[in-house]
Every structure is written in structure tokens, then in C-alpha cells.
Amino acid sequence: MAGTDQRRRQLAREKFERQQQRRVEARQKAKRRNVIIASVLAVVVAAGGAAWAVGGLSNDDNDSKSDTAAPATTPPASPEPTEAASPEPKITIDKTAKYVMSLKTNVGEIAVAMDAAKTPSTVNSFKSLADKKYFDNTKCHRLTTQGIFVLQCGDPKGDGTGGPGYTIPDENLKSLGKPAADGSVTYKAGTVAMANTGQPHTGGSQFFLVYKDTKLPPTYTPFGTLDPASLKIVDTVAKAGVEGATGDGAPKKAVTVQKATVDKL
């Protein structure tokens, strides 16, 4: 009897250890799959050649905070996002129409022109979220002024870790053109594109506004364009710099989206 009990305890212990190992492997797999706002590349010229450095245009859905103080040439900390809990919204927009996303902010009105024929899932998602007041009273949490030149918004948590609970597919990437020898393409000033986790088809609600030509890998859906007045507003925010005098972090001139709407033209 004693031998039988000992064998049972051994089997139970081995089962528990296998379960623990599977949990650890699952967490590690999820973390690898969801490396934050996509590994962003910034060109650094040194020793007569170009070297790539990783930064983050991230789109996380997690309670832990990302390191937004690191410069674009240093990899930021990567919180582990949770899995998407729901499907993307059903398409209800007119796929043949053009739309405008209007962001009423404390620093001025920012208008983003969007073409549903090129990015139907992205436009539909923004329309759905805006109609639910998802973006209202949120802040643009990240400004980058070194290596890449973007203002990032769309996170309801305001710290780079928020998302809508679903992901949308990548779209319109071919419009970026053929990558250069270093694998980069140029996102022109005035481009508005989706952030992601570094893996295909992982856009959520976070997006970035390019205020100066920026070299990135062609993995971020370009879905909109700023008009000249809106680009000037973003450029003014960029010129004010980043908190802590770093090249990557919260903008010193805080930007709050007071109200967001998406309307058919």
C-alpha cells in the first residue's frame, strides 16, 4: 500500500511539473509573438555605413507599462500583450468612399483623410471605435524626435499598453513601394499609419502621425494623410520636444484628443 501511495504522489508531482512547464512555454511563445509596437528601424549613420537600430511603434494590450523614455535607437521594454478577445467589427462602411477622421485636440483640429477602397478594415475599425467615443479624452502618449519622427496616439490607457481587444489585417502596404537595400521604405511627412506588435495583422487602435520623412520597414498600414494645417500642428508639438529632454517619450507639449469622429465625404 505504501508503495502504491508513493507512486501516486510521484505521478501527481510529474503531472504538476508538466503543467507548469506548458504554462511557461505558452507565456514565452506569446511574448515572442507579440513583441511590442513592432520593431521599428531607425537609420544610424556611422563609420561610413548605415546600421539599423530597433525602436518601438508599439501596440500593446496589457496592464504593464512600456518604457517610453528610451531614444528610438534603443529597444524599449516590451510588455507582454494579452490575446485578442473578440473579432474585428463587421464591415459597415462604404468601401468605395472616402472618409475623414477629425481629431479635436487641445492643440488644434487634426484632420486625417482616409480612402476606404485602399484600407477598408482600418477605416471601418476607426469608424466603429469613434462612434463609440473610444478615442474621446485620450492622450497621444509618445513622441519620437530621433531616428524616427512620429507622434503616437490611439491608446485609451495613455501609456502604450491599451487596445480595443481585437486586431485588424495589414492593408495598403504595396503602396509604400519597393524597399531599399536596407529593407526600409520612406513614410512621407503627413502619413498616418497603424502601430502593431511587430507581427503581421496585429493592428489595434494605436496609430502614428509622421511629421517628418521617416524610414521604417514596410509593415505599418498607411491608412491616412494629414492636410497641411494638421501637419503643422503635429510639427509644432514635435518642436516642443520630449519630456525629460530625451528623443523618445511623452511629448512635452501634451496632446489630448478631446473628441474623435469619422465621417463619409
UniProtKB/TrEMBL annotation:
<dbReference type="GO" id="GO:0003755">
    <property type="term" value="F:peptidyl-prolyl cis-trans isomerase activity"/>
</dbReference>
<keyword id="KW-0472">Membrane</keyword>
<dbReference type="InterPro" id="IPR044666">
    <property type="entry name" value="Cyclophilin_A-like"/>
</dbReference>
<feature type="compositionally biased region" description="Basic and acidic residues">
    <location>
        <begin position="1"/>
        <end position="28"/>
    </location>
</feature>
<protein>
    <submittedName>
        <fullName>Peptidylprolyl isomerase</fullName>
    </submittedName>
</protein>
<feature type="region of interest" description="Disordered">
    <location>
        <begin position="244"/>
        <end position="265"/>
    </location>
</feature>
<feature type="transmembrane region" description="Helical">
    <location>
        <begin position="35"/>
        <end position="55"/>
    </location>
</feature>
<feature type="region of interest" description="Disordered">
    <location>
        <begin position="57"/>
        <end position="91"/>
    </location>
</feature>
<keyword id="KW-0812">Transmembrane</keyword>
<dbReference type="Pfam" id="PF00160">
    <property type="entry name" value="Pro_isomerase"/>
</dbReference>
<feature type="compositionally biased region" description="Low complexity">
    <location>
        <begin position="80"/>
        <end position="89"/>
    </location>
</feature>
<comment type="function">
    <text>PPIases accelerate the folding of proteins. It catalyzes the cis-trans isomerization of proline imidic peptide bonds in oligopeptides.</text>
</comment>
<feature type="region of interest" description="Disordered">
    <location>
        <begin position="1"/>
        <end position="30"/>
    </location>
</feature>
<feature type="domain" description="PPIase cyclophilin-type">
    <location>
        <begin position="105"/>
        <end position="262"/>
    </location>
</feature>
<keyword id="KW-0413">Isomerase</keyword>
<dbReference type="InterPro" id="IPR029000">
    <property type="entry name" value="Cyclophilin-like_dom_sf"/>
</dbReference>
<dbReference type="InterPro" id="IPR002130">
    <property type="entry name" value="Cyclophilin-type_PPIase_dom"/>
</dbReference>
<keyword id="KW-1133">Transmembrane helix</keyword>
